[in-house]
Every structure is written in C-alpha cells, then in structure tokens.
Design goal:
The protein is an alpha+beta fold. Among the domains are: about 1-90 and about 255-275, no CATH class; about 280-325, no CATH class. It has 6 helices and 16 strands. A hairpin with a 4-residue loop joins strand 3 and strand 4 (about 65-70). Helix 2 (about 95-120) runs antiparallel to helix 3 (about 125-135). The longest helix is centred in the first third of the chain and has 24 residues, at about 95-120. The protein is globular and about 65 Å long.
C-alpha cells in the first residue's frame, strides 16, 4: 500500500508551484499499449505521461506499471508499482536489439541471393522473388541496402483533444516513414501544427526503439505535435508494434520527484521468465517447444521467404506437408 500511496502523490497536478529549474514540462494523457524502453507488453490503456526536461515518467494504473526514462542519464527504470520494485537498464541494453536487426537483415539478403541463384533460369520465379523481397523491405537492385523515406500523405484529419482542460479541435497531417518499398511502414504518424508543446516525444522513440539510423534521420524531419503513432519493430528476435493516441495535454509544472523512482522502491534484477528471448533460443513452429538454436533445424518457405524453426527431421517433414496444403504452423507466432 505504501507503493500505491507514492503513485497517488506522483499523479497529483502541481498547479501554481512554479516550474522546477525553469525546465520545460508537460503532462500528457494517452491511450497506448506501452512505451519505448518498456519491455512489459500491455493491452491498450490510458497512461499518464509526465515530462520534465529530458526526464519522463509513464504511469499505466490499469496494469500496475510505470516507466521512467532519463535522456541525460541514458537510463530506463521499469517499475511494478504495487510491489514497490523496479528494474534498471542502461540505454546500451537496447543496442543488442539493433545488432539483432542487422543480423536479421543480413540473413534475409543471403537467403534472397541464394534463392535467386537457384531460380536463375526461371524468369517468372525471379520476378516473384523480387516482389517478395521488396514487400518485406529489401532492395532487389542492391540487396542489403536500406533507404528510409518520409512521405506526407494527402489525407488529413480533424480530431478533438482536451488541452488545458478545454476541448480543442486540431487539424492533423498524415506521415509515414518507410524502409525502401516495404509493405508496412516503420512509422505511421498523425501530426498537428495547431499545437505547440515544449517537449519532443519522438526523441524517446529515436533513442530507444531499435530502428536503423536511416529511419531515425527521417524522424528528425517531422515538425509539430504527435497525435497518433504506430511504430512497428521487428529485429528478428524482438517483435513489437507500439500504438499511441493523444487524448489530453496539460501545460503543468512537473516536479523532479514525479519523474524519479520513489526512494522507497527496491531495485531488483529481471527474473528469467521476464527476459526477452535471446537470439540463441528459438521456438519449434510445430510443437511450441523452445530449443537452443544450435539444436534446431530451419526451413525457409520458397515463396514467402519466411524462416521457420523445427525440432527435428520428423517435424520438418510435417511442416513442409502442412504448408504445401496451405496450412499455417500452429506455433508460427512463436508463442
């Protein structure tokens, strides 16, 4: 209960107290399924985001979860509120995901080149391989190359937000950031220039979401206030779609204690069951069994170029037979 009491102090408005140290501060209410840097997956829920300078706290009461990010310290702290406990990670922790992504892109390139070599005398198959490689974000002309593009789409939207306790309608423009000609964009964004806020939420995405530098460079070009965001992350070992929608903005002073873990909270190490799956562990798509990568077999679908992991030769034969009939492996989602 002491931990819960601390949270009630954190979310209290700080009207008229004066801005601490003159730094920019803001309180945001959003509907979201998480936040960059957090490794706890949630369903969509209302979150309160308090920001002071380069420090931020996300509080999701429905899931008993809070996240603290400090850009200056380069540290993320993730808390279970009712337990009064938090885990701490340096920003360097997220470099692992970027390394995983680079390896995944290299594997895709190698598989594409091998398949093209085998299909060298079949023009229709070569064309199909090029289309599929393009769909998943590859460049058939220069395999392995990634170029990101910021596109402003023609559709616009007007939405109603609560700003400083009053309803306000704002016009939003639609942007996507796409890697090469990939079917699904890395970012799908709705941004308004009708509001000006003193903080840049996209700075947290840039630091903590493991996109390549090509995508990060495009993020810096966007001007305005983020209203809706869909960010799709796939590093080969970590798959996550971050969704957020702005509901309310409050230009309130935020005290340093609001964006810091309470002193009463205990720092703990991550339990094994909470660890993100390491690159050397895979799931058999036929049995659901988790296996060391070195002991598993892999098979790449000749049309979709999707890679599957299988326990043994018997399951491999069953997989090929199932897919040949148009079926889907029961554990293809890795769960």
């Amino acid at each position: 209960m002491a931990a819960l009491g601390a949270l009630l102090v954190w979310v209290s408005p700080a009207f008229g107290q004066g801005n601490s140290g003159g730094e920019d501060s803001l309180v945001i209410v959003q509907e979201s399924n998480g936040f960059p840097g957090g490794e706890q997956t949630t369903q969509l829920a209302l979150q309160q985001v308090s920001i002071l300078g380069g420090a931020l706290r996300v509080y999701d009461p429905a899931h008993d979860w809070a996240l603290f990010v400090n850009l200056d310290e380069q540290v993320v702290r993730e808390a279970r509120v009712s337990r009064g406990q938090f885990e701490q990670r340096e920003f360097a922790h997220y470099q692992k995901y970027r390394a995983d992504r680079a390896k995944s892109l290299e594997r895709q390139k190698d598989q594409f080149l091998q398949m093209r070599k085998r299909a060298a005398d079949r023009p229709d198959e070569l064309e199909r391989l090029d289309r599929e490689y393009t769909r998943i974000g590859g460049d058939p002309q220069q395999p392995g190359r990634i170029q990101a593009h910021l596109e402003q789409l023609e559709d616009e939207r007007t939405v109603t937000l609560r700003v400083d306790h009053r309803l306000q309608r704002v016009r939003c423009r639609h942007y996507v950031i796409r890697e090469n000609a990939k079917e699904h964009p890395a970012f799908d964004l709705w941004v308004t220039e009708d509001l000006s806020i003193p903080v840049n939420l996209l700075a947290y995405y840039e630091q903590l979401v493991p996109f390549g530098p090509e995508v990060s460079a495009q993020l810096t070009k966007i001007r305005g206030t983020l209203v809706e965001c869909v960010a799709r992350v796939d590093t080969g070992t970590f798959h996550k779609t971050y969704v957020s929608r702005l509901v309310e903005l409050r230009n309130e002073d935020v005290e340093p204690t609001e964006v810091s873990v309470p002193a009463s909270f205990e720092r703990v190490e991550r339990h094994d069951r909470d660890q993100p799956q390491a690159d050397d562990s895979v799931v058999c798509v036929m049995t659901g069994e988790r296996l060391p990568r070195s002991q598993a077999k892999s098979w790449t679908h000749p049309r979709t170029m999707r890679r599957y992991w299988i326990k043994d030769s018997q399951q491999l034969r069953a997989l090929i037979k199932l897919v040949g009939k148009g079926g889907t492996p029961p554990y293809a989602g890795g769960k």
